[in-house]
Design goal:
- It is built from seven helices and five strands; from the N terminus they run H-H-E-H-E-H-E-H-E-H-E-H.
- With 185 residues, it is of the alpha/beta class.
- The chain has two domains: 31 residues, no CATH class; 129 residues, Rossmann fold.
- The longest helix is centred in the first third of the chain and has 16 residues.
- It starts with a helix and ends in a 15-residue tail after the last helix.
């Protein structure tokens, strides 16, 4: 019975059972998730306020510029549903549900705080990873209210965005190296 107490308390390395179980689930999840391919694109949702803002369109410009990255967009800002506030929220739930990752635009916070917060809370409740984009072209801080709801915060950089999506949605290792060539005079 002494071994059972050791199993519950922790192993020889001092790790708790809960820690070992999380590690086991993460390793197992990574082993079973398929890699991003043309036949298996990443399903994403980009936060919106029922309009295609500059930042919304910029996300897709960045995603399109990356080679060998395939995605399917589930956000539909151009299809404003008829009805009250709850009808709008239900439509947003339907857009977020099939997504593997949510890309949040912090620029929406000032003008559409309630909508952005709802989208992020629903994503979190649905266990969808949230990738938060910092404000574009400014040095403004990201509001703490939405910063706490994000799994990862990313600058406006094509490669950083795609790597964050791969890490968060598919748990793919994204270690890449830059090669810088220069000439010595």
């Amino acid at each position: 019975m002494a071994w059972a107490a050791g199993w519950r308390a922790g192993d020889a390395s001092g790790r708790s059972r809960a820690f070992r179980m999380r590690e086991f689930r993460r390793e197992r999840a990574c082993a079973t998730l398929p890699r991003v391919s043309q036949s298996n694109p990443v399903r994403i949702f980009v936060t919106h306020a029922w309009e295609s803002s500059d930042d919304y369109l910029r996300v897709f410009e960045y995603l399109e510029s990356q080679r060998n990255f395939f995605y399917r967009n589930y956000s539909t800002p151009d299809r404003l549903p008829q009805g009250d506030r709850e009808a709008l929220r239900e439509n947003l739930r339907q857009q977020i549900t099939p997504a593997e990752a949510v890309i949040a635009l912090s620029s929406l916070f000032e003008a559409h705080q309630d909508q952005l917060t709802f989208q992020l809370l629903y994503a979190q409740a649905s266990h969808k990873p949230v990738i938060l984009m910092k404000p574009f072209g400014t040095r403004r801080e990201v509001p703490k209210a939405i910063l706490d709801l994000a799994d990862e915060v990313v600058e406006w950089d094509e490669r950083a965005l795609v790597d964050a999506i791969r890490r968060q949605a598919r748990h793919e290792e994204t270690t890449r190296w830059d090669t810088i060539e220069f000439k010595l005079d």
